[in-house]
Amino acid sequence: QVQLVESGGGLVQPGGSLRLSCTASGITFNYYTIGWFRQAPGKEREGVSCISSSDGSTYYRDSVKGRFTISRDNAKNTVYLQMNSLKPEDTGIYYCSVSNHWGQGTQVTVSS
């Protein structure tokens, strides 16, 4: 049974930083591309970033480029999302996903 557990969310002031983690179990982690998504109140879920399994190549949506960094540690079955220079529009529930499986999400709130 595949399980994804996100952590690291919280309340932060604009300009602050958070580091999200997503740990997977029940799956051969290093075989898969891993993605981070977010959903703001009243909006649809959107892709934020992903990292491939093969060569570690990464993708970022335009609004987070230069501020967010995705990385993975296959030995720990964990993917990270380092978020710097956070903005109020980054507020939402952040989910990780692999092979059509989803975690429960972690809340990120950027507010003064």
Brief characterization of the structure:
This protein is mainly beta. 0% of the residues lie in helices and 51% in strands.
Textual characterization of the structure:
The chain is globular. 0% of the residues lie in helices and 51% in strands. It has strands at residues 3-7, 10-12, 18-25, 34-39, 46-51, 58-60, 68-73, 78-83, 92-98, 101-102, 106-110. Strands 2, 4, 5, 6, 9, 10 and 11 form a 7-stranded mixed beta sheet that branches. A 4-stranded antiparallel beta sheet has the order 1-3-8-7, with no helix packed on it. The chain contains no helices and 11 strands. With 112 residues, the chain is mostly beta strands. The termini are far apart.
SSE run: EEEEEEEEEEE
Q: What is the C-alpha radius of gyration, as a whole number of Å?
A: 13 Å
CA-based shape = globular
Number of helices: 0
Mean pLDDT: 96
The helix/strand class is mainly beta
Key traits:
mainly beta; 7-stranded mixed beta sheet; 4-stranded antiparallel beta sheet; 51% strand; 112 residues; 0% helix; globular; 11 strands
Which helices and strands appear, and what pairs or packs with what?
Blueprint: E1 3-7, E2 10-12, E3 18-25, E4 34-39, E5 46-51, E6 58-60, E7 68-73, E8 78-83, E9 92-98, E10 101-102, E11 106-110
Parallel strand pairs: 2-11
Antiparallel strand pairs: 1-3, 3-8, 4-5, 4-9, 5-6, 7-8, 9-10, 9-11
